[in-house]
Amino acid sequence: MFKEFNPAEDKILRVIDNEGQLINKKWMPQLADEQIQKAYNDMLFARVADTMAVSYQRQGRMFTYPPNLGQEAISGALGNIMTEEDWLVPAFRELGAWLAKGATLKDIFLYFKGNEEGNAFRNVKKLLPMAVPIASQLLHAVGIGYAIKLRNEKDIVYTVVGDGGTSEGDFHEALNFAAVWKVPVIFVVQNNQFAISVPFSKQTASVNVAVKSLAYGMPGIKVDGNDYFAMYSALDYSRNYASEGKGPVLIEALTYRKGAHTTSDDPTKYRTKEEEDFWGLTDPLTRLNKFLKAKKLITDTEEQTLIEQYKKEVDRSFEEAENYPPTVLDDVFKYTYVDIPEDLKIQQMEHEKFLKWKEAQK
Amino acid sequence: MNMVQAINNALEIKLREDPTVVLYGEDAGFEGGVFRVTEGLQEKFGEQRVFDSPLAESGIVGTAVGMAIAGLRPIVELQFCGFVYPAFNQIISHAARIHNRSRGKFKTPMVIRFPYGGGINALEHHSESMEAMFGHIPGLKVIIPSTPHDAKGMLIAAIESDDTVMFMEPKRIYRAIKQEVSEEKYSIPIGKAKVLTAGDDITVVAYGAMIREVQKAMVMAKSKNISVELIDLRSIYPIDKETIIKSVQKTGRLMIVTEEPKSFGVAAEITAIANEEAFLYLEAPVKRVAGFDTIVPLPATEHFYLITPEKIFYELEKTVKF
Ligand SMILES: Cc1ncc(C[n+]2csc(CCOP(=O)(O)OP(=O)(O)O)c2C)c(N)n1
Ligand SMILES: [Mg+2]
Fold first, then answer.
1. CATH architecture of the domain covering B194-321
2. Which residues in A191-226 are b (16+ Cβ under 10 Å) and which e?
3. 20 to 30 A from A53, CA-CA: which of A323, B40, B102, B149?
């Protein structure tokens, strides 16, 4: 696969076209109908949750949130490939992948409602909290990969970064360390063509992201990230490659951020309607929906029922987050250290005294 | 043992008894590091556990964060204090915070070792003392030994700590002090200062390579009948307020000797502690003897910058006579 889609020639792996028609039989993954249906449902759920998250934010019930609209096939495929034993080291625009790894929507909402507790994902092993300093998380994935290798374990580490992140030094250090150490890490670049307002053409003079892997001595492949089957196929191939002890892989998933960067951003300032319409035709859900319809695996009514059901589910999770107990002063202090210094305890105590005094003034 | 041997011995003990300990850095594997602190360890423990990494500080610290998350206890060596800066993001944004961010789900039991300080006739970037910057970061612990015995015990405590520890090594005295150091395992708790000499007239707080300079100044002080209580701080953060305050309450005077740039430093922090906790005991203004707020000069000019016993004595006498 890596030879066939040589990134130096800017080849791209695509399996279905915008009409949902199979165009590359060779790389069509062998999936049962139910698996495809489940993948579609997961992606649909992520989209409903994402869209509702944006509206909760607009209603002032949540803080800044980074929409995933249009990028669902990447995390959808990741979700179907990852096992419980694998690690996920995410950036911050990974709703679908978090859900796929088992994170609860309640926790995700809790986090974007400003409660750090939501970032612990306590019910899931091997899922790191979201990392905001761009690209810095990639090195953690490599370190985890080293630990796996040292202990002769079988886990794979999946780590995600944006196209903007590929300009950061840590991206390059991570690829280099991973290749030198030959660790089982799969780097997934969500190339959604924007880093806030900056288009991909201003990030790099390389023909694509995947080609950068070659310089580090590891394989890389550019994939249509809006094509669920292509993503699945590339991840599946890469996973097998990494589990054979051959080392890391770089996957560039070409996609398009249909929404704003975050809820505080207005993309109409830096891109045109024409561009948005053009990329709109590549929408991952529409394509998979067309594929399923052609196979008579879904109808519009069924889809509508699903959406209604998902909306209720999302609302329930949001309510759970809203009813979560309020934070206390101890939340500020208690995890700064494992072994908390005396002085920090005193700082907390002193503030408690102040709070009592304040209460007494009422 | 000298300090290099004591540190090597601590590393060896931990590598032997704890299979989760790994050690790496630039030249730290095969060659044993630029100061030969890790010499012989790769031979003893193999290339999987003691190894050379690519030359990239952010990469070294960032991968250590990942290893720690996955259950290892990495010890990384950075070559000089002046070359820690490329790793700042990983240290400040992750090593110091993963435990907080994940609400205790993950921790980062790792040690970041590096030599610091001046007085070795070095090029630019090789003489810096930036402990205050690390002490300022919530989530980090920062310790500095002043003797081979302490270096060994403190490093063992650092490796066993579940928090990230910056272990700064006073390279100027790496080989300058020899002392009996037990081959047995022992540890010295992080956060505890030590009264090295009891005295009545003034408290001097110092650490690392400055201890020896203060001790030389104390010989001069003694001939003038000035009795100095010398405290080796050992831990920059957490800082042992209790030992400092108790001493200041006794002597009524306080001087801090550090080789860091003076402003916003460890000495300033200790001054603030004395102000907050021992104000009424003070009989003279607290004195900071510290490096200038300049770049540490190259060897031809460095003698102006270095804190000498004479300079320490000069300030000491003024503070006592105030
Ligand atoms: C080190 C760092 N610099 C700047 C920022 C502010 N910032 C947040 S998201 C972002 C753009 C990221 O773009 P990309 O990597 O393409 O990811 P995307 O947002 O498209 O998912 C920037 C600049 C940051 N979080 N971290
Ligand atoms: Mg982007």
1. 3-Layer(aba) Sandwich (3.40)
2. bbbbbeeeebeebeeeebbbbbbeebebbbbbbbbb
3. B102
Please say if A257 is a catalytic residue: yes
In CATH, which superfamily holds the domain spanning B3-173? Thiamin diphosphate (ThDP)-binding fold, Pyr/PP domains (3.40.50.970)
Residue B254 has pLDDT above 90, yes or no: yes
Calculate what percentage of chain A has a pLDDT beyond 90. 99
Q: What is the mean pLDDT of residues A223-246?
A: 98
Is A197 a pocket residue for ligand 1 (Cβ < 6 Å)? no
| Longest distance between any two alpha carbons in chain A, whole Å | 75
Q: From the candidates B26, B45, B63, B108, which should be mutated to test the interface with A, based on the most A CB atoms within 10 A? A: B63
φ/ψ of B289, rounded to 5, equals -110, 110
Q: What is the ipTM of this complex?
A: 0.96
Mutate to test the pocket of ligand 1, among A65, A68, A134, A160 (most ligand atoms within 8 A of CB): A134
Residues of B in contact with A138 (CB under 8 A): 62
What's the CA gap between A9 and A73, in Å, rounded?
Answer: 24
Residue B105, SS3 per DSSP: coil
Domain boundaries, chain B: 3-173, 194-321
Tens-digit pLDDT profile for residues A271-322: 999 999 999 999 999 999 999 999 999 999 999 999 999 999 999 999 999 9
